[in-house]
Amino acid sequence: MDEAVNRRAGLTESDVAFLRRVEKDMGIVADISRADMLIYCPVDATHAMVVAQARPHSILPIHPDPIIGRTATPSEEPYIFKALRWKRRTRGDLTLIADGAPIVQEVYPLWNDQGAMVGVLSIETNLLEHERHRRRSKVFQRALRWLQEMLLRRELTGVEGLSPFGEHDGILVVDAQKKIRYVSGIATNLYRKLGYMDSLIGRPLSDLETVDEELVSTAMREGHCLEREVEERGRIWIKKVIPLLCRDDRLNWLRKLASLPSPRSRLAGVMLTVHDETEARRKEQELKVKSAMIQELHHRVKNNLQTIASLLRLQRRRVKSEEAQRALQESINRILSVAVVHEFLSHQEARVINIRDVSQRIIEQTRAVMDPRKRIRLSLKGPSVYLPTRQATACALIVNELLQNAVEHGYERRSTGVISVELEDEGDKVLIAVKDDGQGLPRDFSLNRIESLGLQIVQTLVRDDLRGDFELRDEGGVKAVVSFPK
Questions:
Q1: How far apart are CA 98 and CA 101, in angstroms?
Q2: How far apart are CA 48 and CA 39, in angstroms?
Q3: Buried b (16+ CB within 10 A) or exposed e, 192-207
Q4: How many CB atoms lie within 10 A of CB 112?
Q5: Residue 317: its pLDDT value, please?
Q6: If 0-12 CB within 10 Å is exposed, 13-18 middle and 19+ buried, where does residue 144 land?
């Protein structure tokens, strides 16, 4: 419930507390009812406002978007205002149109602990689902009515701890003597997986070699909803048990008008829901295995790249030419830049990489191989930016090349300076800037006539891999800017 909506509806603190207790129990009832549930509170004589909403997980909801705070008039919601005025249940067929489909609306008064009506609960079912309910067993219809009445009386204890009821879940209704009185078609198929091929209706739970009797006995004894995950015959089940309480409330509105106490509720049985979690768990386990294999693959690639870099270091020590040494060191830096990405992927399951972390690691690698006679400070600015693996690999190479270019060409005649890597996340676009305070660009410099292999690599990666733009600016030094769409 929204505080601003509560104030607009003129609800007191006690009213809000009462309605919140109802709201937290609405979810599972909406799921099993296969209906949307809305709480309306009166604003004035001609307006009522939606203050709470529950959408079913077992069927496509009538109201797929949140409508809390929406107001209605008597012409738009006649049965809401009839229930508010008459203080009793109202029902309307084919009165509302949602996305062109007719729906059935049942509206119930909500009485607080002091016996005052603070609003109404609207149960809205599409006509097709309503007709399906009508053709179902009378046992199920009665159990569903008890469940909805328990919601109105706030007798659903522990229901907030239950997971949602899905469209592929089965339902059993068990009476107070623990005999099965109703089994849905889905539940019949689920129990056949356990070897129960004959009808379960009329059989005591004790006949089944399952944990059902134990779960039902516990729920009946404690008067509390419960949920358990169990493994039976190689399958994983999630079972929920909801105690069903009933009372003769047919004339309850007259009792309230006459200030007579309501009859006490009695235990009529339980509703047992069954969900087969086996395939989902198998897929989850398969994904874990695949993820572990992929992480191990990245770990091995990283190790192989580092091995290649070590071999190139040995080769660099053997050559005499300074130009060859420089070329080998540049190749080592490029290999290690790619290895950084694989190192991050080997330690996490996600397939996205934080470019800020990658840039920090490349800065450390650059700092480690810089000429110790030059006191150039390297810094990193900007937020975390998460990118897919391919973009992250291209960015790692780009940051490496731009840093090397700044160190090599920006401070040929200076031994001190500052180079910064700056990141910006603009939502649908990313900016990476490498800025130095060195000697700037040559007067005849043009991006169309680049001789530097490093800048050629940057241009190619930005154009072909990132589908972005690259520019160099002279701003009291050089600022290289790369921008590309996420």
A1: 5
A2: 10
A3: eeeebeeebeeeebee
A4: 18
A5: 84
A6: buried
- What backbone phi and psi angles, to 5 degrees, belong to 96? -115, 150
Shared domain check, 305 and 250? no
Q: Which of 31-35, 381-385, 391-395 has the lowest mean pLDDT?
A: 391-395
40-72 burial, b if ≥16 CB within 10 A, otherwise e?
bbbeeeebbbbbbbbbbbbbebbbeeeeeebbb
Measured from the Cβ of residue 424, the count of other Cβ atoms closer than 10 Å reads 15
Within this chain, do residues 114 and 229 fall inside the same structural domain, yes or no? no
| Dist. CA 398–CA 392, nearest whole Å | 10
Give the end of a domain, one of 242, 276, 310: 276
Choose one of 224, 252, 276: the last residue of a domain: 276
Q: What is the pLDDT of residues 131-178, one digit of tens each?
A: 888 888 999 999 999 999 999 989 999 998 899 999 999 999 999 999
Model confidence at 282: pLDDT above 90: no
* 344 confidence band (pLDDT: 50, 70, 90): confident
448: confidence class by pLDDT, cuts 50, 70, 90:
low
The string over 294-324, giving b where at least 16 C-beta atoms fall within 10 Å of a residue's C-beta and e elsewhere, is eeeebeebbeebeeebeebeeebeeeeeeee
Residue 359 lies in a domain: no
Residue 357, domain member (yes or no):
no
Residues 185 and 239 in one domain: yes
Q: Specify the 3-state DSSP secondary structure of 472.
A: strand
Closest CA to 120 of 19, 14, 193, 215: 19
Nearest Cα residue to 416 out of 454, 382, 378, 467: 378
What SS3 class is residue 204?
Answer: strand
* Average pLDDT of the residues of the chain: 86
Domain of residue 110: give its range: 1-129
How many other CB atoms are there within 10 angstroms of residue 142's CB atom? 17
